[in-house]
Backbone:
């Protein structure tokens, strides 16, 4: 789940005491800006086979795609950086091919590459926006625990975070997956059950002040969260 090591997290935790709202929000405004031109390409130009409109939208698509290179992922998405970079590369490649099709005035290729550009954009959206909002809500609590409270072994806040995660488990256990990943429901339910058991154990262990056991229990929660997240690819 986490792109940083515990040692790196400790350095960060020493410098910062609390996670900011922006750091905990899975959002990339530049991607939302790109959606404006994607919407017009996909919902207007593509179904109407309007190649003139496609050509007219390319400068805007270029500008807003380039802006993604200046967009930093928020802390909550730090573990998605590699997938984000790969997704951006696919987006840029599709846009390049779309330009080539437009220059050749190849109507079919323009429509095909508009579809590919849209698909690459949707891939980036899936990276930023989780398939299960309830899992994102759980992750926000785990993020604060791992990157802020554990590095300094702030036991009071570790206990608070453990309790907050426990409250997030029942809604997560009831979550129904969207249609595109509905076939993963059984595996999801099984993994969430294990995650819930680990969270329960953490809440018991943090009643003590056995640092090693507490840290081991946190790592177990992290591992089980990662199992749930990896169900989606």
Residues:
């Amino acid at each position: 789940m986490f792109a940083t090591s515990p040692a790196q997290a400790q350095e960060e935790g020493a410098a910062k005491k609390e996670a900011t709202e922006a750091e905990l929000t899975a959002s990339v405004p530049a991607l939302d800006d790109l959606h404006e031109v994607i919407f017009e390409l996909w919902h207007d130009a593509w179904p109407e086979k309007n190649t003139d409109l496609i050509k007219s939208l390319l400068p805007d698509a270029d500008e807003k795609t380039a802006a993604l290179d200046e967009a930093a992922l928020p802390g909550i998405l730090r573990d998605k950086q590699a997938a984000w970079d790969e997704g951006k590369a696919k987006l840029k490649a599709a846009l390049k091919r779309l330009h080539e099709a437009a220059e050749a005035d190849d109507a079919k290729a323009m429509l095909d590459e508009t579809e590919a550009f849209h698909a690459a954009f949707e891939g980036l959206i899936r990276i930023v926006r989780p398939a299960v909002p309830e899992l994102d809500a759980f992750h926000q609590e785990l993020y604060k625990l791992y990157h802020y409270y554990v590095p300094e072994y702030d036991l009071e806040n570790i206990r608070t975070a453990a309790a907050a995660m426990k409250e997030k488990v029942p809604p997560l256990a009831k979550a129904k997956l969207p249609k595109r990943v509905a076939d993963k429901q059984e595996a999801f339910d099984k993994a969430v059950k294990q995650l819930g058991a680990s969270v329960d154990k953490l809440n018991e262990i943090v009643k003590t002040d056995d640092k090693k056991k507490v840290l081991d229990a946190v790592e177990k929660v992290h591992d089980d969260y990662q199992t749930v997240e990896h169900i989606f690819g």
In short: The mean pLDDT is 88. The chain has two domains: 29-128, 131-230. The first helix runs from residue 6 to 15. The chain is about 75% helix and 0% strand.
